[in-house]
Amino acid sequence: MDFKRSIKEKKYVVEISQREVEELRNSIRAAYDKVIADYVERMKRGWAGRPKVMDYFYEMADFSRREKELIEAKSEGKKIIGYTCVFAPVELILAADAIPVRVSCGLYEPAKIGNRIVPVEVCPVIRSTVGAKIIGLSPFLEQSDALITALTCDGMTKLSEIMSDYKPVWTICPPRLKDTEQSLSFWRSELLTLKANIEKLTGTKITGKSLRRAIERVHRANRVFRKLQNLRKEKPVIMGRDAMLVTQIAMWDDLERWTEKAELLCIELEERLKENNLACPPDTPRVMLTGSPIIWPDNWKLPNLIEEAKPQGIIVADELCSGDRFLYDPVGVDEWTFEDMFTALAERYLMPSTCPCFTSEAGNEDRVNWLINRVKEWRVEGVIYYIYRGCMLYAMEYMRIKHALDHLNVPTYYLDTDYTREDVGQIKTRVEAFLEMLKARIEI
Ligand code: SF4
Predict the structure, then answer these.
(1) Nearest C-alpha neighbor of 133 from the set 103, 168, 158
(2) What pLDDT was estimated at residue 8?
(3) Over the range 79-118, which residues count as b (16 or more CB within 10 Å of their CB) and which as e?
(4) Ligand 1 pocket mutation, candidates 129, 289, 394, 415, criterion most atoms within 8 A of CB
């Protein structure tokens, strides 16, 4: 379904003067430039002997280079298509020769501005994304010609309406039950409607040829992405917060360039593994993150606390829609016919998803199995279940996940937070206590 931008009157009106908009935008932009510079500096300090190619990812971490490139691309007639969630098939955007960028906001300050439209009880990812739009702060949101939003949770569903006050919004609705014939055919028709909207905006027909090229481009990124994740199964050759940053940059970077740089990084890390040149001591407690998305930059609050803690921990895997779930699963094509490719695309964006918006008689079995597999293969010693206040879906599944991890005798720590720095001290104490406990278990 597409929400036409309401030219005449905004549905969600916010009283704010242009002068206040500019003041807020400039002050918040200056503030987050400092946060980004500080976090990048802390990552560099935390991994002194890091591979040179990491400097590319640190450079891309401050958005400005990519913003310039997007503005230039638009001046050459390219279309930019933003997406809020990993249900959006980037292959369709690339097949229409447009540029995909993820637009969910990871900045704390705009959440307060979002409160002018959205109540504080609502998840901060939504409030921050709304706030960023009100003051025109997010380069990716601002440069997007249209948005793809998935109707997963209540927050994302209403976000689609609010954003349609500013841009064309194309919603896609994942069926709550995924393993029925109707579900897949319904989902496939949702993506066919999306395809038509993308073609209309770009003026470019998505053909079998262009879709195949796009699938193959993403396959190259899938392969490197998996290589990087699989390297984290071994001894710690890369710090988790650095690996998470590399992963997340794929959501807004030029995918070819990202693939090339990530490939160089993997080659270097494989060398280091052979030389036992590690990023931290091999007996550092191995932590996995699961739950609400951890979106750069402000939300590196937790990864920083884990990897700067005493005793130190290392993040070896995550089950986050802002992390390992992004490029891990390739589109599985049998025959390169358009029909077959399109069905494979629909299956790729539905079947492997572990989003808690799904249910079935057995519950969200796929998520439990995904987590159990990660714990075993990545030798995870502790899990941090990360929740934003207002995120009902992930909160509701906690006990289910904890139960499954208890069976594996893997401790789980439930951490609820918000888009704020006020709880850093409290979280630091609790994280260090959790890591202390894991370390004691390792030493037994
Ligand atoms: S964090 Fe939770 S509530 Fe927020 S957008 Fe994601 S699923 Fe929805």
Answers:
(1) 103
(2) 57
(3) bbbbbbbbbbbbbbbbbbbbbbbbbbbbbbbbbbbbeebb
(4) 394
Element at 258 (helix H, strand E): helix 255-274
**Which atom of ligand 1 sits closest to the CA of residue 293?**
1
pLDDT averaged per 10 residues, the chain (length 444): 59 91 97 96 94 97 96 98 97 98 97 96 97 97 98 96 96 94 95 98 98 98 97 96 98 97 98 96 97 97 98 97 94 96 97 93 86 97 97 96 96 97 97 97 83
pLDDT of residue 3: 59
pLDDT of 432: 98
Nearest residue (by CA) to ligand 1, atom 1, is 292
Task: State the closest ligand 1 atom to the C-alpha of 84, by its place in the atom list counted from 1.
Answer: 5
User: Which residues lie closer than 8 Å to 306 by C-beta, 6 or more apart?
Assistant: 240, 241, 287, 312, 313, 314, 315, 384, 431, 435
Which amino acid appears at position 179 of this protein? Answer: D
**Phi and psi torsions of 274, nearest 5°:** -60, -40
CB 234, CB 41: distance < 8 Å: no
Name 285's Cβ contacts closer than 8 Å, sequence gap at least 6: 311, 312, 313, 314, 381, 382, 435, 438, 439, 442
